[in-house]
Amino acid sequence: MSVKQWLYVQLVPEARASGISRLNLFIVAIVLASFLFLALETEPTLNTDPRWMRAFDVFNITVLGIFAVEYVARLWVAGLDPQFKGIGGRVKYVTRFYSIADLLAFAPELVVMALGGGGSLLVLRVLRLARLVKIARFVPAFDALGAALRRSSSQLLTSLAVALTLVYVAAVLLYFVEGVGGEHQEQFASIPRAIWWAVATLTTVGYGDVYPVTPLGRFFSAIIAIAGIGVVALPAGVFASAFSDELRERRERGPNP
Amino acid sequence: MSVKQWLYVQLVPEARASGISRLNLFIVAIVLASFLFLALETEPTLNTDPRWMRAFDVFNITVLGIFAVEYVARLWVAGLDPQFKGIGGRVKYVTRFYSIADLLAFAPELVVMALGGGGSLLVLRVLRLARLVKIARFVPAFDALGAALRRSSSQLLTSLAVALTLVYVAAVLLYFVEGVGGEHQEQFASIPRAIWWAVATLTTVGYGDVYPVTPLGRFFSAIIAIAGIGVVALPAGVFASAFSDELRERRERGPNP
Amino acid sequence: MSVKQWLYVQLVPEARASGISRLNLFIVAIVLASFLFLALETEPTLNTDPRWMRAFDVFNITVLGIFAVEYVARLWVAGLDPQFKGIGGRVKYVTRFYSIADLLAFAPELVVMALGGGGSLLVLRVLRLARLVKIARFVPAFDALGAALRRSSSQLLTSLAVALTLVYVAAVLLYFVEGVGGEHQEQFASIPRAIWWAVATLTTVGYGDVYPVTPLGRFFSAIIAIAGIGVVALPAGVFASAFSDELRERRERGPNP
Amino acid sequence: MSVKQWLYVQLVPEARASGISRLNLFIVAIVLASFLFLALETEPTLNTDPRWMRAFDVFNITVLGIFAVEYVARLWVAGLDPQFKGIGGRVKYVTRFYSIADLLAFAPELVVMALGGGGSLLVLRVLRLARLVKIARFVPAFDALGAALRRSSSQLLTSLAVALTLVYVAAVLLYFVEGVGGEHQEQFASIPRAIWWAVATLTTVGYGDVYPVTPLGRFFSAIIAIAGIGVVALPAGVFASAFSDELRERRERGPNP
Predict the structure, then answer these.
(1) Would an 8 Å CB–CB cutoff place A204 in contact with chain C?
(2) Which residue, A18, A146, B193, D219, has most beta carbons within 10 Å?
(3) Model confidence over D5-36: pLDDT tens digits?
(4) Is residue B144 part of a domain?
(5) Can you tell me the ipTM of this complex?
(6) Closest CA to A144 of A63, A6, A253
(7) Is residue B145 one of the residues assigned to a domain?
(8) pLDDT digit string (tens) for D179-226?
(9) How many CB atoms lie within 10 A of CB A18?
(10) pTM
(11) Phi/psi at B21 (nearest 5 deg)?
(12) Taking a contact as any Cβ pair under 8 Å apart, which residues of chain A between 151 and 190 contact chain C?
């Protein structure tokens, strides 16, 4: 087996019957670590410390290098797949969704860095979210998500319409009771502000930054909460159950039917 | 095909086998936009700005005009339906629930505006919620809501009775522990106030404006929370499941059986 | 039909094939009103106002009178049921759970009032909760609750054990991270206090009176929240589903099998 | 029946067809009481009071003694089981997971106490959590937990990946809207801090220590809350349903198949 063939089996998930190769597992680990570092890099207590900043720089350059090498290697071995053979095949390969995400995951930052930019521009760092696609390839759930959305789309739309109507009507009601009448609370002084309250209440998040204070407002609020919680949870429940059905069906069909 | 016939097919949903016509889609979009504007209009940071106020006025007059034209057009083409033919048919048409809602959606505001009133009277703006009925006609879920209520009514009533009993008993208990005894908290100083706490806790909203502070109050509160959350969520769950069953059955029966 | 027979059919639910008689509906309404008044009576802004106090007194005396008359009437007509005939039967009738609750619902307060006591003693008012039993007789759900508890008892106990273990272990963990170490937060200074946090978090109530502030505490807290919410909701879910199954089975069996 | 045989039947759960012996019930009660005391011992308002401290000391020494006697007794009667007969059998017995937990539940504290240490060292008290294993032996649910984890592992992993991705992406979004832009809120000043908000919101705990204040932040937050709550509840739901299935199957199989 040539190096190219070995790399092909290591890099291309479709070349394996099941499971994930060691090289791809390593890439997944790098991506997860890069998300951890992306988070830490934004923390003021760390990114003002020269030692941490140095660690971030070393890590980022290493990761960009690994992804660049990975990209070139994937491009090289892609030729072993008949549909990506030759120049035409490679063009087809490079313009795939997955390949574009692979490129966005390192190229822009590398280019800016090479041009002398700090490589720490915020907008460039957001592009690192494209690395999610790198993992998505190995987690079957990521395309099960799409399938679940499609299979429940009509039910989802109707239940979403009902939930949003309830949020809107609840907000209008409390706007009149607490904002226009009542104690003229700042937080209920307009319908958009009351919508913020309605979402926080009906999803049961209840931050506590907004709540009715008049007896009448509390009375309506209590009725809305008891009656409405199930309705607002409906779209999420419909989607969760479609997703769960999709995963079960896939498991029953076996890994690669 | 005459203009009247074309308008009939465009305006009357029953004239189509399935889907929604372009004209009706436009009307739905107008209604949604009018709800967005109704919300924005109440926002103090916008409705004190002359440019926004002008935008609101232009939008409102346009929408009222569109709905007036729509109403007249619907009245005109209704004659193509045998049951609404002639004067008697039109009287029958005009007194339908849908037609009354269509009229309330624009007429009162238009009349007040014509008489020189600002058209911005609060109570008149609330009548715009009647426009929800305009959309309801095109979302099958809105009458599935009613069917779900009917099919689960007895289960719903019993589970609601149990939930409300739990809320009441929990409130009485905490009223004695925190309001009468304990730290004499203002927030637990009466049963109605304790009911507000019980609803916020048992629906898990938990704003944080009221909570027990004595060890005994926290002890009972913890037991009530762990044991009672499922019970208070019961009515919402019963309704959600009836609604979901109703939607699934309708989908299985096909669009127009 | 004699007055006694008419009263028997009106008062004893078992004498009817289904539904509820007008007299019993009136009694249910009185009980519900008395719960509303019991709540209002404790409200400081009302019970310091002489007019409201007078209204409360008039209402309470009226209700006590109605329940006294009802009790005597039930005792009289009970003789039409063979098992409660004669003196021996009446003794058996009077010592039933339902009859004792009926007596507790008015007698102690009436006696204290007759002896010149204010009738507003707190402990006496709590006895009014016995009136719940009066309604329970007409809501099939109240004994479905007991049946649901029995049918799911073993599942309920195991899931409760798992939930409480999780609450305890989460509390011990956060006690060490936030109370002993960390910022030495008052609110996490002992395991019982940390249990209060754990219950508020794992039931998703989240009042906001207690929350971790150190990065480590937030890290563990986030893991506990994501992993544990389903586990703590398990007992409530098990009971809710048993209750819902019980209600459905009863409906399928018909009203009076 | 010799004392050894009687003790064997009392101590070893496998020696009984079903249920739990009186001696083991007593040990479970002691363990539960020791968890209650472990909690109370950490409470500053109690552990600074000499009388409570004395009560804690007496209780702890008693419990340690009981567990020491129990350990020796279990070791003695273990010989009646052929696989633990003789010296070799006892070595096998002593190195079992359950026996190690039994030893950790009292030995370290007893040794430190004998050496003159106060026995109240924090780290030693944590070892008392090993006593959970003592109860786990009698609650079938504790090993049903492991079985539920195994049976749903692949579904659990995928749904967890989706949930964590949603938490991360929501945090990145709000970090930009509220932390970088907006009001430059301290609480959203880095991605890790925004993750704390995302977990509190998407699990619906909503402490209220962090929430968006800008209109744009609230807009995204509302969408994330309505759309995401079901997704983040998915892993917990998957596990809860696997646990519930496992319990039902075990019940259907009978106690000791």
Answers:
(1) yes
(2) B193
(3) 999 988 888 787 777 889 999 999 999 999 99
(4) no
(5) 0.89
(6) A253
(7) no
(8) 888 777 889 999 999 999 999 999 999 999 999 999 999 999 999 998
(9) 8
(10) 0.90
(11) -75, 165
(12) none
